[in-house]
Amino acid sequence: MKFGDENTPEAKPAAEVSFYEKHKKIYVRDVQGWWTTWRWVFVWLTQAIFYLTPWLVWNDRQAVLFHLVERKFYLFGLVLWPQDVFYLAVLLIVSAYALFLFTAIAGRLFCGYACPQTVYSEIFMWIESRIEGDRSARMKLDKGPMTARKFRLKAVKHLLWIALSLWTGFTLVAYFTPMQELLAALPFGLSGWEMFWTLFYAGFCYMQAGFLREQVCKYMCPYARFQGVMFDPDTLVITYDPERGEPRGARKKDGDVTALGDCVDCGLCVVVCPTGIDIRKGIQYECIGCGACIDACDPVMDKIGKPHGLIRYTTENALEKKFGASEVVGHILRPRILLYTGILILICIATAWSLATRVPLMVDVIRDRSTLSREADDGSIENVYNLKFMNTTEQAQRYKISVDGLAGVHLAEERPVEVGSAENLEFTVVVRVPPESGKSGANTIYFNIQADADEKISVREKASFLMP
Predict the structure, then answer these.
(1) For the chain, does the N or the C end have fewer beta carbons within 10 angstroms?
(2) 364 — alpha (psi -120 to 50), left (phi > 0) or beta?
Protein backbone atom coordinates (compact mmCIF):
# COMPACT_ATOMS: atom_id res chain seq x y z
CA MET A 1 0.00 0.00 0.00
CA LYS A 2 1.34 3.47 -0.91
CA PHE A 3 0.66 6.77 0.80
CA GLY A 4 1.24 10.29 -0.63
CA ASP A 5 0.14 12.28 -3.64
CA GLU A 6 2.75 12.92 -6.30
CA ASN A 7 0.81 15.96 -7.63
CA THR A 8 1.05 18.04 -4.46
CA PRO A 9 4.16 20.10 -3.76
CA GLU A 10 4.27 18.88 -0.19
CA ALA A 11 4.16 15.26 -1.25
CA LYS A 12 6.56 12.94 0.52
CA PRO A 13 8.11 9.84 -0.99
CA ALA A 14 5.60 7.01 -1.12
CA ALA A 15 6.02 4.40 1.59
CA GLU A 16 5.06 0.75 1.42
CA VAL A 17 3.31 -0.56 4.51
CA SER A 18 2.69 -4.25 5.15
CA PHE A 19 -0.24 -5.30 7.29
CA TYR A 20 1.28 -8.72 7.88
CA GLU A 21 4.38 -9.46 9.87
CA LYS A 22 6.89 -11.69 8.13
CA HIS A 23 7.40 -14.84 10.12
CA LYS A 24 10.84 -15.40 11.58
CA LYS A 25 11.71 -18.80 12.92
CA ILE A 26 12.33 -18.74 16.66
CA TYR A 27 15.36 -20.65 17.87
CA VAL A 28 14.72 -21.34 21.55
CA ARG A 29 17.70 -21.78 23.80
CA ASP A 30 17.62 -24.61 26.35
CA VAL A 31 17.21 -23.44 29.93
CA GLN A 32 17.26 -25.16 33.30
CA GLY A 33 15.48 -24.08 36.44
CA TRP A 34 12.60 -24.54 38.83
CA TRP A 35 9.85 -23.51 36.41
CA THR A 36 11.33 -25.54 33.55
CA THR A 37 11.40 -28.61 35.78
CA TRP A 38 7.75 -28.16 36.63
CA ARG A 39 6.90 -27.68 32.96
CA TRP A 40 8.52 -31.03 32.12
CA VAL A 41 6.72 -32.66 35.05
CA PHE A 42 3.44 -31.67 33.43
CA VAL A 43 4.67 -32.79 30.01
CA TRP A 44 5.39 -36.26 31.37
CA LEU A 45 2.22 -36.36 33.46
CA THR A 46 -0.18 -35.32 30.70
CA GLN A 47 1.40 -37.62 28.13
CA ALA A 48 1.52 -40.57 30.51
CA ILE A 49 -2.21 -40.14 31.08
CA PHE A 50 -2.95 -39.71 27.36
CA TYR A 51 -0.83 -42.58 26.01
CA LEU A 52 -1.31 -45.13 28.81
CA THR A 53 -5.03 -44.76 29.57
CA PRO A 54 -6.24 -46.73 26.49
CA TRP A 55 -4.15 -49.69 27.69
CA LEU A 56 -5.88 -49.91 31.08
CA VAL A 57 -8.28 -52.84 31.51
CA TRP A 58 -11.40 -52.93 33.68
CA ASN A 59 -13.85 -55.85 33.84
CA ASP A 60 -12.19 -57.48 30.82
CA ARG A 61 -12.64 -54.39 28.62
CA GLN A 62 -10.92 -51.07 28.06
CA ALA A 63 -11.21 -48.92 31.18
CA VAL A 64 -11.85 -45.60 29.39
CA LEU A 65 -13.64 -45.85 26.07
CA PHE A 66 -16.11 -43.72 24.09
CA HIS A 67 -17.45 -46.68 22.15
CA LEU A 68 -19.08 -45.14 19.09
CA VAL A 69 -20.42 -48.41 17.68
CA GLU A 70 -22.10 -49.46 20.91
CA ARG A 71 -22.95 -45.83 21.79
CA LYS A 72 -21.61 -46.22 25.31
CA PHE A 73 -19.01 -44.39 27.38
CA TYR A 74 -17.03 -46.63 29.70
CA LEU A 75 -15.26 -44.84 32.54
CA PHE A 76 -13.76 -47.56 34.73
CA GLY A 77 -16.78 -48.98 36.61
CA LEU A 78 -19.21 -46.42 35.20
CA VAL A 79 -21.18 -46.97 31.98
CA LEU A 80 -22.85 -43.92 30.46
CA TRP A 81 -25.32 -43.88 27.59
CA PRO A 82 -26.45 -41.17 25.12
CA GLN A 83 -29.24 -40.37 27.58
CA ASP A 84 -26.53 -39.33 30.06
CA VAL A 85 -25.34 -36.47 27.84
CA PHE A 86 -26.16 -34.22 30.82
CA TYR A 87 -22.90 -35.30 32.43
CA LEU A 88 -20.98 -34.23 29.32
CA ALA A 89 -22.54 -30.78 29.64
CA VAL A 90 -21.53 -30.70 33.31
CA LEU A 91 -17.97 -31.68 32.38
CA LEU A 92 -17.76 -28.78 29.92
CA ILE A 93 -19.14 -26.37 32.54
CA VAL A 94 -16.62 -27.57 35.13
CA SER A 95 -13.79 -27.20 32.62
CA ALA A 96 -14.89 -23.66 31.76
CA TYR A 97 -15.14 -22.60 35.40
CA ALA A 98 -11.79 -24.18 36.20
CA LEU A 99 -10.23 -22.29 33.29
CA PHE A 100 -11.75 -19.01 34.51
CA LEU A 101 -10.55 -19.71 38.04
CA PHE A 102 -6.97 -20.58 37.08
CA THR A 103 -6.79 -17.61 34.72
CA ALA A 104 -8.06 -15.17 37.34
CA ILE A 105 -5.50 -16.50 39.82
CA ALA A 106 -2.39 -16.97 37.68
CA GLY A 107 -3.06 -15.86 34.11
CA ARG A 108 -2.26 -18.35 31.35
CA LEU A 109 -1.18 -21.08 33.72
CA PHE A 110 -2.87 -23.75 31.58
CA CYS A 111 -1.16 -22.46 28.41
CA GLY A 112 2.31 -22.61 29.89
CA TYR A 113 2.15 -26.05 31.46
CA ALA A 114 -0.69 -28.27 30.22
CA CYS A 115 -1.95 -26.99 26.85
CA PRO A 116 -1.42 -29.68 24.17
CA GLN A 117 0.14 -27.09 21.87
CA THR A 118 2.75 -26.21 24.52
CA VAL A 119 3.33 -29.82 25.51
CA TYR A 120 3.87 -31.16 21.99
CA SER A 121 5.94 -28.14 20.98
CA GLU A 122 8.22 -28.88 23.95
CA ILE A 123 8.54 -32.53 22.92
CA PHE A 124 9.21 -31.68 19.27
CA MET A 125 11.80 -29.04 20.20
CA TRP A 126 13.48 -31.52 22.56
CA ILE A 127 13.78 -34.01 19.67
CA GLU A 128 15.10 -31.23 17.41
CA SER A 129 17.76 -30.10 19.88
CA ARG A 130 18.96 -33.66 20.52
CA ILE A 131 19.44 -34.28 16.79
CA GLU A 132 20.54 -30.91 15.42
CA GLY A 133 22.29 -29.51 18.50
CA ASP A 134 21.91 -26.39 20.63
CA ARG A 135 20.52 -23.04 19.50
CA SER A 136 23.64 -21.81 17.73
CA ALA A 137 24.16 -25.17 16.02
CA ARG A 138 20.57 -25.17 14.73
CA MET A 139 20.88 -21.63 13.41
CA LYS A 140 24.14 -22.47 11.67
CA LEU A 141 22.67 -25.65 10.20
CA ASP A 142 19.61 -23.86 8.78
CA LYS A 143 21.70 -21.08 7.22
CA GLY A 144 24.15 -23.49 5.62
CA PRO A 145 23.77 -25.22 2.23
CA MET A 146 22.09 -28.61 1.88
CA THR A 147 24.83 -31.14 2.52
CA ALA A 148 24.63 -34.88 3.14
CA ARG A 149 24.96 -34.26 6.91
CA LYS A 150 22.21 -31.63 6.92
CA PHE A 151 19.90 -33.87 4.88
CA ARG A 152 20.54 -36.80 7.24
CA LEU A 153 19.84 -34.75 10.38
CA LYS A 154 16.69 -33.18 8.94
CA ALA A 155 15.43 -36.55 7.68
CA VAL A 156 15.93 -38.25 11.06
CA LYS A 157 14.22 -35.37 12.86
CA HIS A 158 11.18 -35.38 10.60
CA LEU A 159 10.89 -39.17 10.66
CA LEU A 160 10.77 -39.06 14.47
CA TRP A 161 8.25 -36.21 14.38
CA ILE A 162 6.05 -38.14 11.95
CA ALA A 163 6.30 -41.36 13.98
CA LEU A 164 5.31 -39.54 17.17
CA SER A 165 2.45 -37.77 15.37
CA LEU A 166 1.10 -41.02 13.93
CA TRP A 167 1.21 -42.73 17.31
CA THR A 168 -0.54 -39.72 18.84
CA GLY A 169 -3.31 -39.88 16.23
CA PHE A 170 -3.61 -43.65 16.67
CA THR A 171 -3.88 -43.23 20.46
CA LEU A 172 -6.62 -40.63 20.07
CA VAL A 173 -8.68 -43.00 17.92
CA ALA A 174 -8.14 -45.72 20.57
CA TYR A 175 -10.39 -43.70 22.89
CA PHE A 176 -13.28 -44.33 20.46
CA THR A 177 -12.46 -47.82 19.16
CA PRO A 178 -11.01 -50.45 21.52
CA MET A 179 -7.21 -50.49 21.41
CA GLN A 180 -7.03 -54.26 20.89
CA GLU A 181 -9.32 -54.03 17.85
CA LEU A 182 -7.16 -51.28 16.35
CA LEU A 183 -3.95 -53.24 16.91
CA ALA A 184 -5.49 -56.31 15.29
CA ALA A 185 -6.57 -54.21 12.29
CA LEU A 186 -3.11 -52.76 11.61
CA PRO A 187 -1.85 -51.90 9.10
CA PHE A 188 -4.54 -52.14 6.40
CA GLY A 189 -7.63 -53.30 8.29
CA LEU A 190 -8.61 -49.94 9.77
CA SER A 191 -11.97 -48.58 8.76
CA GLY A 192 -12.23 -45.41 6.71
CA TRP A 193 -13.05 -43.10 9.60
CA GLU A 194 -10.37 -44.66 11.83
CA MET A 195 -7.75 -44.10 9.15
CA PHE A 196 -9.01 -40.57 8.47
CA TRP A 197 -8.91 -39.40 12.09
CA THR A 198 -5.54 -41.02 12.74
CA LEU A 199 -3.99 -39.22 9.78
CA PHE A 200 -5.95 -36.00 10.40
CA TYR A 201 -4.85 -35.65 14.02
CA ALA A 202 -1.31 -36.80 13.20
CA GLY A 203 -1.10 -34.19 10.44
CA PHE A 204 -2.19 -31.38 12.71
CA CYS A 205 0.17 -32.52 15.45
CA TYR A 206 3.08 -32.61 13.00
CA MET A 207 2.23 -29.23 11.49
CA GLN A 208 1.40 -27.30 14.64
CA ALA A 209 4.10 -28.65 16.96
CA GLY A 210 6.78 -28.96 14.30
CA PHE A 211 6.30 -25.81 12.22
CA LEU A 212 3.63 -23.38 13.48
CA ARG A 213 4.44 -23.57 17.20
CA GLU A 214 4.17 -20.04 18.64
CA GLN A 215 2.02 -18.93 15.67
CA VAL A 216 -0.81 -21.10 17.00
CA CYS A 217 -0.65 -19.25 20.32
CA LYS A 218 -0.32 -15.83 18.72
CA TYR A 219 -2.76 -16.02 15.81
CA MET A 220 -4.97 -19.11 16.05
CA CYS A 221 -5.78 -19.67 19.73
CA PRO A 222 -8.84 -17.66 20.87
CA TYR A 223 -7.82 -17.99 24.53
CA ALA A 224 -4.93 -15.54 24.02
CA ARG A 225 -7.40 -12.97 22.72
CA PHE A 226 -10.06 -13.08 25.40
CA GLN A 227 -7.78 -13.72 28.38
CA GLY A 228 -7.51 -9.97 28.95
CA VAL A 229 -11.11 -9.76 30.15
CA MET A 230 -10.30 -12.38 32.83
CA PHE A 231 -7.20 -10.57 34.11
CA ASP A 232 -7.30 -7.90 36.77
CA PRO A 233 -4.58 -6.02 38.72
CA ASP A 234 -4.45 -8.86 41.28
CA THR A 235 -3.86 -11.65 38.75
CA LEU A 236 -0.47 -13.35 39.02
CA VAL A 237 1.47 -12.89 35.78
CA ILE A 238 5.13 -13.06 34.78
CA THR A 239 6.41 -9.51 35.09
CA TYR A 240 9.66 -7.62 34.65
CA ASP A 241 10.36 -5.09 37.41
CA PRO A 242 11.38 -1.91 35.51
CA GLU A 243 11.95 0.13 38.65
CA ARG A 244 14.60 -2.33 39.72
CA GLY A 245 15.99 -3.24 36.29
CA GLU A 246 16.22 0.13 34.51
CA PRO A 247 18.35 1.62 33.17
CA ARG A 248 19.74 -1.62 31.85
CA GLY A 249 23.30 -2.07 30.69
CA ALA A 250 26.26 -4.44 30.60
CA ARG A 251 28.68 -4.58 33.53
CA LYS A 252 32.29 -3.75 32.77
CA LYS A 253 35.23 -4.83 34.84
CA ASP A 254 36.14 -2.12 37.35
CA GLY A 255 33.38 0.06 35.84
CA ASP A 256 30.93 2.26 37.72
CA VAL A 257 27.54 0.52 37.84
CA THR A 258 25.84 2.75 40.39
CA ALA A 259 23.82 4.45 37.64
CA LEU A 260 22.61 1.14 36.20
CA GLY A 261 19.71 -1.06 37.16
CA ASP A 262 19.95 -4.81 37.82
CA CYS A 263 19.24 -5.80 34.20
CA VAL A 264 22.52 -6.44 32.37
CA ASP A 265 20.74 -6.49 28.99
CA CYS A 266 22.01 -10.00 28.26
CA GLY A 267 18.90 -10.89 26.25
CA LEU A 268 18.63 -14.41 27.70
CA CYS A 269 15.01 -13.81 28.66
CA VAL A 270 14.25 -13.30 24.95
CA VAL A 271 16.15 -16.26 23.47
CA VAL A 272 14.57 -18.77 25.90
CA CYS A 273 11.02 -17.53 25.26
CA PRO A 274 9.02 -20.03 23.15
CA THR A 275 6.93 -17.21 21.64
CA GLY A 276 9.92 -14.91 21.06
CA ILE A 277 8.72 -11.90 23.07
CA ASP A 278 10.72 -9.53 25.25
CA ILE A 279 9.12 -9.62 28.68
CA ARG A 280 10.87 -6.34 29.53
CA LYS A 281 8.39 -4.53 27.27
CA GLY A 282 5.57 -5.31 29.70
CA ILE A 283 2.63 -7.71 29.74
CA GLN A 284 1.88 -9.04 26.24
CA TYR A 285 -0.87 -11.32 25.01
CA GLU A 286 1.74 -13.61 23.41
CA CYS A 287 3.14 -14.54 26.85
CA ILE A 288 2.00 -18.05 27.78
CA GLY A 289 3.28 -17.86 31.37
CA CYS A 290 5.76 -20.73 31.07
CA GLY A 291 8.40 -19.14 33.36
CA ALA A 292 11.38 -19.81 31.06
CA CYS A 293 12.47 -16.16 31.31
CA ILE A 294 12.53 -16.43 35.11
CA ASP A 295 14.80 -19.48 34.95
CA ALA A 296 17.12 -17.60 32.55
CA CYS A 297 17.26 -14.40 34.61
CA ASP A 298 17.79 -15.78 38.14
CA PRO A 299 21.26 -17.33 37.42
CA VAL A 300 22.36 -14.01 35.93
CA MET A 301 21.32 -12.27 39.14
CA ASP A 302 23.40 -14.81 41.06
CA LYS A 303 26.47 -13.96 38.97
CA ILE A 304 26.23 -10.21 39.62
CA GLY A 305 25.33 -10.63 43.28
CA LYS A 306 21.72 -9.43 43.01
CA PRO A 307 18.61 -11.07 44.50
CA HIS A 308 16.28 -13.18 42.38
CA GLY A 309 13.02 -11.74 41.13
CA LEU A 310 13.93 -9.16 38.51
CA ILE A 311 11.51 -11.24 36.42
CA ARG A 312 8.98 -13.04 38.56
CA TYR A 313 5.41 -14.13 39.07
CA THR A 314 3.66 -11.20 40.71
CA THR A 315 0.61 -8.97 40.29
CA GLU A 316 0.24 -5.52 38.83
CA ASN A 317 -0.83 -4.12 42.18
CA ALA A 318 2.00 -5.87 44.01
CA LEU A 319 4.57 -4.41 41.63
CA GLU A 320 3.12 -0.91 41.84
CA LYS A 321 2.44 -0.85 45.58
CA LYS A 322 5.38 -3.06 46.61
CA PHE A 323 3.29 -5.71 48.35
CA GLY A 324 4.95 -8.42 50.40
CA ALA A 325 4.22 -12.12 49.90
CA SER A 326 1.43 -12.19 52.48
CA GLU A 327 -0.24 -9.14 50.94
CA VAL A 328 -0.07 -10.72 47.47
CA VAL A 329 -1.78 -13.86 48.77
CA GLY A 330 -4.38 -11.76 50.55
CA HIS A 331 -5.26 -9.92 47.36
CA ILE A 332 -5.40 -13.16 45.35
CA LEU A 333 -8.15 -14.46 47.65
CA ARG A 334 -10.57 -11.79 46.48
CA PRO A 335 -14.39 -12.07 46.04
CA ARG A 336 -14.10 -13.04 42.38
CA ILE A 337 -11.85 -15.99 43.19
CA LEU A 338 -14.01 -17.10 46.12
CA LEU A 339 -17.12 -16.94 43.89
CA TYR A 340 -15.52 -19.03 41.13
CA THR A 341 -14.21 -21.53 43.69
CA GLY A 342 -17.57 -21.79 45.46
CA ILE A 343 -19.49 -22.37 42.21
CA LEU A 344 -16.94 -24.94 41.04
CA ILE A 345 -17.10 -26.86 44.33
CA LEU A 346 -20.91 -26.85 44.33
CA ILE A 347 -21.08 -28.16 40.76
CA CYS A 348 -18.55 -30.91 41.53
CA ILE A 349 -20.39 -31.95 44.71
CA ALA A 350 -23.75 -32.00 42.94
CA THR A 351 -22.33 -34.05 40.06
CA ALA A 352 -20.64 -36.52 42.40
CA TRP A 353 -23.89 -36.92 44.38
CA SER A 354 -25.85 -37.42 41.13
CA LEU A 355 -23.46 -40.15 39.96
CA ALA A 356 -23.40 -41.83 43.38
CA THR A 357 -27.21 -41.98 43.61
CA ARG A 358 -27.77 -42.70 39.93
CA VAL A 359 -29.97 -45.74 39.34
CA PRO A 360 -28.16 -48.02 36.84
CA LEU A 361 -31.36 -48.78 34.97
CA MET A 362 -33.27 -46.79 32.35
CA VAL A 363 -36.74 -47.72 31.15
CA ASP A 364 -38.73 -46.06 28.37
CA VAL A 365 -42.45 -46.91 28.25
CA ILE A 366 -44.11 -46.46 24.85
CA ARG A 367 -47.76 -47.35 24.35
CA ASP A 368 -48.50 -49.26 21.15
CA ARG A 369 -50.22 -46.69 18.95
CA SER A 370 -51.47 -49.22 16.40
CA THR A 371 -54.13 -50.37 18.89
CA LEU A 372 -55.48 -47.67 21.22
CA SER A 373 -57.45 -50.08 23.41
CA ARG A 374 -59.21 -53.40 23.00
CA GLU A 375 -61.53 -55.72 24.86
CA ALA A 376 -60.12 -59.00 26.13
CA ASP A 377 -61.97 -62.34 26.20
CA ASP A 378 -62.88 -61.87 29.89
CA GLY A 379 -64.40 -58.42 29.21
CA SER A 380 -61.50 -56.39 30.60
CA ILE A 381 -59.92 -53.52 28.68
CA GLU A 382 -56.31 -53.89 27.66
CA ASN A 383 -53.53 -51.69 26.29
CA VAL A 384 -50.23 -52.85 24.80
CA TYR A 385 -46.90 -51.24 25.81
CA ASN A 386 -43.33 -51.56 24.60
CA LEU A 387 -40.79 -51.29 27.40
CA LYS A 388 -37.19 -50.48 26.46
CA PHE A 389 -34.73 -51.56 29.14
CA MET A 390 -31.19 -50.19 29.45
CA ASN A 391 -29.10 -52.09 31.96
CA THR A 392 -26.20 -49.73 32.71
CA THR A 393 -24.47 -52.15 35.08
CA GLU A 394 -21.86 -54.65 33.92
CA GLN A 395 -23.73 -57.58 35.40
CA ALA A 396 -26.72 -59.38 33.90
CA GLN A 397 -29.90 -58.35 35.72
CA ARG A 398 -33.31 -59.95 36.23
CA TYR A 399 -36.21 -57.51 36.64
CA LYS A 400 -39.76 -57.88 37.95
CA ILE A 401 -42.51 -55.73 36.42
CA SER A 402 -45.65 -54.59 38.20
CA VAL A 403 -48.25 -51.93 37.47
CA ASP A 404 -50.55 -49.72 39.60
CA GLY A 405 -52.55 -46.49 39.41
CA LEU A 406 -56.04 -47.86 38.59
CA ALA A 407 -58.29 -50.17 40.54
CA GLY A 408 -57.79 -53.75 39.40
CA VAL A 409 -54.99 -52.93 36.96
CA HIS A 410 -52.69 -55.89 36.31
CA LEU A 411 -50.39 -57.47 33.73
CA ALA A 412 -51.95 -60.03 31.42
CA GLU A 413 -48.85 -62.17 31.92
CA GLU A 414 -46.40 -61.68 34.74
CA ARG A 415 -42.93 -62.87 33.91
CA PRO A 416 -39.46 -61.53 34.76
CA VAL A 417 -37.22 -59.83 32.22
CA GLU A 418 -33.55 -60.71 31.88
CA VAL A 419 -31.16 -58.11 30.44
CA GLY A 420 -27.47 -58.76 29.83
CA SER A 421 -24.66 -56.60 31.13
CA ALA A 422 -24.64 -53.08 29.63
CA GLU A 423 -27.28 -54.12 27.09
CA ASN A 424 -30.60 -52.90 25.67
CA LEU A 425 -33.74 -54.99 25.50
CA GLU A 426 -37.21 -54.24 24.16
CA PHE A 427 -40.07 -56.07 25.89
CA THR A 428 -43.81 -56.04 25.17
CA VAL A 429 -46.41 -56.23 27.95
CA VAL A 430 -50.19 -56.21 27.97
CA VAL A 431 -51.97 -54.29 30.77
CA ARG A 432 -55.59 -55.02 31.67
CA VAL A 433 -58.16 -53.23 33.83
CA PRO A 434 -61.82 -54.00 34.63
CA PRO A 435 -64.22 -52.15 32.28
CA GLU A 436 -65.70 -50.16 35.19
CA SER A 437 -62.28 -48.91 36.33
CA GLY A 438 -61.21 -45.39 35.40
CA LYS A 439 -62.82 -42.82 33.17
CA SER A 440 -63.27 -42.64 29.43
CA GLY A 441 -60.09 -41.41 27.74
CA ALA A 442 -56.59 -41.28 29.20
CA ASN A 443 -55.89 -42.56 32.72
CA THR A 444 -52.57 -42.43 34.51
CA ILE A 445 -50.87 -45.67 35.48
CA TYR A 446 -47.36 -46.48 36.72
CA PHE A 447 -44.91 -49.24 35.80
CA ASN A 448 -42.65 -50.45 38.59
CA ILE A 449 -39.45 -52.27 37.61
CA GLN A 450 -37.40 -53.88 40.37
CA ALA A 451 -34.11 -55.79 40.09
CA ASP A 452 -33.98 -59.16 41.88
CA ALA A 453 -30.32 -58.84 42.88
CA ASP A 454 -30.47 -55.31 44.33
CA GLU A 455 -33.52 -53.64 45.80
CA LYS A 456 -31.93 -50.21 45.23
CA ILE A 457 -32.20 -50.73 41.48
CA SER A 458 -35.81 -49.79 40.86
CA VAL A 459 -37.60 -47.47 38.45
CA ARG A 460 -41.14 -46.09 38.48
CA GLU A 461 -42.35 -44.84 35.09
CA LYS A 462 -45.56 -42.98 34.28
CA ALA A 463 -47.79 -44.01 31.34
CA SER A 464 -51.32 -43.41 30.00
CA PHE A 465 -54.00 -46.08 29.82
CA LEU A 466 -56.80 -45.43 27.31
CA MET A 467 -60.36 -46.43 28.14
CA PRO A 468 -63.04 -46.53 25.40
Answers:
(1) N
(2) beta
Of the residues 292, 322, 352, which one is the last residue of a structural domain? Answer: 322
**How many domains does the structure of the chain reveal?**
3
Question: Range of 294's domain?
Answer: 232-322
**145 with 252, same domain?**
no
Whether residue 378 lies inside any domain: the answer is yes
Give yes or no: residues 185 and 298 share one domain: no
**CATH number of 398's domain:** 2.60.40.10
Question: Residues 133-171: pLDDT tens digits?
Answer: 999 999 999 999 999 999 999 999 999 999 999 999 999
Q: What pTM was estimated for this model as a whole?
A: 0.83
